[in-house]
Amino acid sequence: MSDPFDPVEDWLGTDVELMPPAPGRFDVVHRRARRRKAAVATMTVAGAAVLIAAAVTVPQLASSLLPNHGGGPDKVGNSSSSSRRPSPSPTSHPSPHRSTRPAGSHSSAPAAGGKLSILNSSAAPAARFEPTSITFVNSSVGAVLGQTTAGCQAVLCTTVAGTSDYGRTWTKVDAPPAVPPSGRIGVSQVRFLDGNNGWAYGPELYATHNGGATWTKIPGLNGRVTDLATVGDRAYAVVARCSGSGSDFAAECGRFALYSTLYNDDDWQPVAGASGRLPVRPGGLQLTGQYGYLLAGSTLFVGSPSGGAWQKVTPASGLVPACLRGGSGPSGLLAPGANSDLYLLCPSASGGHGVLYTSIDAGQTWLKSGPFTGPGPVTSLAVAPTSGTLVAATGKGIFYSDESAGQRSWHRAGSSGSAPAGGFSFVGMTTTMLGVAVPANASVREIFITRDGGLNWVAKAIS
Questions:
Q1: Distance CA 82, CA 132 (A)
Q2: Do the beta carbons of residue 74 and residue 56 sit within 8 Å?
Q3: Could you tell me what percent of the chain has a pLDDT over 90?
Q4: pLDDT at residue 112, as a whole number
């Protein structure tokens, strides 16, 4: 594997100046985009996968992952596990970086949906399941990764469960042979592209190509995997140089590189143009079927998710969102919509309400869509496919928005019982109606599910 941390990165990372639109053209395109939006579904992970704009999806991580660590889903409040120190993972022989499967075993395209192979199990999930990450490949099949003290020789053990009915029932799934995150070791997140191909990561990286029946550790990435997303026939991962310790593994990351691989291979290679000495936080990587986005500090990178180089994007003209102007302010939260639509919520440096910005041309030009009026800080932002409804998770609860005269108004979502202490670290919408949220404090031992487009949420234990 080549190392992207070299002088070439400066040349590859040169800003691309985009041509400004003709006078008045932006408004015309904006109106057309709004008319067609209702007819187009957005895909940010495989199939009907969850749309995410999270600063972190490890609800149990410490302060650097809390808002505003980037506003991710995992900004955790005070997690019960934050004081637990996972024991070192057992010594194992590293597997080859490139997949050892025969060349003929690579299919031309990912399987559509289907059951994870481990869902054939009827065993119940581990007791005392504390969820930290969740992923869905369609409106039925998904997996959740977390940690447990049940039947565990260490202080904490990694555990996985799967569902075939969007969280109504769960079964035990084989977990990767890794401890919960601790500095350079362990995993905290999970992503599946389809019923066979999935990844557990943060900070290490494990892959499965048989639905979770077996997992292979991926060596040689020369850093900590802080973010991973997948769509189409590729997976992308952000690998960063970080100095955080314990469960705060993604803290103080000042240098990064974006890697990619085919969905059924383990040959991860750096993506040209997407590396540099910039701070990154989990949740800054977002993919749709047409565009890939990566927000590193105040710099936005854009590329094709099907392969090729990525570029820095400098707004062509007009308004520049506050969190894209440089400086040391808090990083924003991205949420891609239909076609080239992109939402960016910039937190307030003073601790007040953040401001929502909208782009219809993949970040070249922006419009202000009004303030976020719910109590902050915002930890995660998602878009419901087709409807375009925005859903935000905060340290106080979940909020959804509708649009009137170009401005967004925000409303508190209903919930079965009161919001968990510390609020939520992650929220994602799989379809227009179905979505999931993860509490910031994993010791709550629940996820929350919506079946009415984000208006109301019901708590569900993994059992």
A1: 12
A2: yes
A3: 58
A4: 58
